[in-house]
Design goal:
Distance between the termini: 25 Å
CATH architecture of the largest domain: 3-Layer(aba) Sandwich
Order of helices and strands: HHEHEHHHHHEHEHEHHHHH
Helix content: 40-55%
CATH topology of the largest domain: Rossmann fold
Strand order of the largest sheet: 2-3-4-1-5
Largest sheet: 5 strands, parallel
CATH class of the largest domain: Alpha Beta
Length: about 350
């Protein structure tokens, strides 16, 4: 985002970057941050942490804030939501394999324990960088795309061997890093627990659970039954709840800059409709600002327009509501963000 230092800065509620933290960050989850930092700094811990909350609740921004301390940055970051969500086991294992290889190359480690590059990828036996280039090509072309697809199919075909290689790579990395190997697995929160992709993802989650891995998950993932969850009930959990009205107002004030005061009452009303979800609050504000350009609308019309457009955003790609959700809405006469698995 290109920052307007004193004026309006709106987007679709994207997570803040390190560059935008100073201007827009609001300290909403201090206790959660302290728990995460304590877990990160404790070198006796080599087990996972599940960091959960509803999509748009501020997870990614809080993680960015924590990782802005260079001493707390992960050794390996694996992004499971950057290539779509219709992935299979070969795709997921490719993400892990590439991440481990990149770190090993960065540290100039000896990987002669295996001839994987030659065995599966038709490369010279020591060309580990070639594996990364095939699985995650920097240049987009049909030829490289087809090579990537074929390579990932080969990984799925030889999954048991690939998993053993990943564990060996993990051992090499752990033996050459002073503190526990810290992995951040982002984007797990985007996967519906009933989807085929999530079922395929389970084996990769179990692999990463052998390390000090922070999993970015959805609220629903935290409360799966033991027989349906790839996570251990003993894993440490940090859960982000809804943001207070005061903090939401402060978030919106920061986005409006010097133009916040004239619409102070409107910001308070938009906050009430946000459900304590920062992303939803910012989208409401974005739609409200857009509605202000329509001179035919009065203040009430702008608010109504913003609310309707945000609701349309929310349900544009959602499936049919479950019977349990409808029953809860009929009973309570309201809907909370925590009830939605989006």
């Amino acid at each position: 985002m290109k920052i307007n230092r004193f004026g309006i800065n709106l987007d679709e509620g994207l997570a803040l970057t390190e560059e935008t933290l100073e201007k827009f960050y609001v300290l909403c989850f201090e206790d959660n941050a302290k728990k995460i930092i304590a877990w990160l700094k404790d070198n006796t811990i080599e087990t996972p942490l599940l960091f959960g909350g509803q999509i748009g609740s501020g997870k990614s921004t809080l993680i960015t804030k924590v990782f802005s301390d260079k001493s707390l940055k992960p050794d390996i970051t694996l992004k499971f939501d950057k290539e779509g969500l219709n992935l299979d086991e070969g795709d997921f294992l490719s993400i892990i394999l590439s991440g481990f290889i990149k770190k090993a190359i960065e540290l100039s480690l000896d990987l002669s324990f295996s001839e994987l590059p030659a065995e599966v990828f038709e490369l010279s036996a020591d060309n580990w960088q070639g594996i990364v280039n095939i699985l995650h090509p920097e240049i987009f072309s049909m030829e490289l795309f087809e090579k990537k697809i074929l390579a990932r199919k080969a990984i799925a075909k030889h999954d048991k061997y690939i998993i053993e290689v990943i564990y060996k790579l993990g051992d090499v990395l752990k033996n050459n890093i002073k503190s526990p190997l810290f992995i951040f697995a982002s984007g797990i929160d985007k996967y519906d627990t009933k989807s085929a992709a999530f079922l395929s993802l389970k084996s990769s989650i179990r692999i990463l659970s052998n390390y000090k891995t922070m999993f970015e998950v959805n609220a629903v993932h935290l409360f799966l039954a033991d027989n349906a969850s790839p996570f251990s009930s003993n894993d440490e959990k940090v859960f982000i709840q809804t943001v207070s009205d005061n903090d939401i107002v402060e978030i919106l004030n920061k986005r409006m800059g010097v133009y916040a005061e004239p619409i102070k009452k409107e910001l308070e009303l938009l906050t009430k409709w946000s459900g304590g979800n920062p992303r939803q609050a910012i989208r409401l504000l974005t739609h409200y600002q857009s509605a202000r350009k329509n001179k035919a609308l009065d203040k009430t019309g702008r608010l109504t327009n913003a609310i309707k457009r945000t609701i349309d955003d929310l349900f544009a790609y959602s499936g049919k509501p479950t019977f349990e959700l409808i029953r809860t809405i009929l009973k309570d006469k309201k809907i909370e963000a925590s009830l939605l698995n989006l």
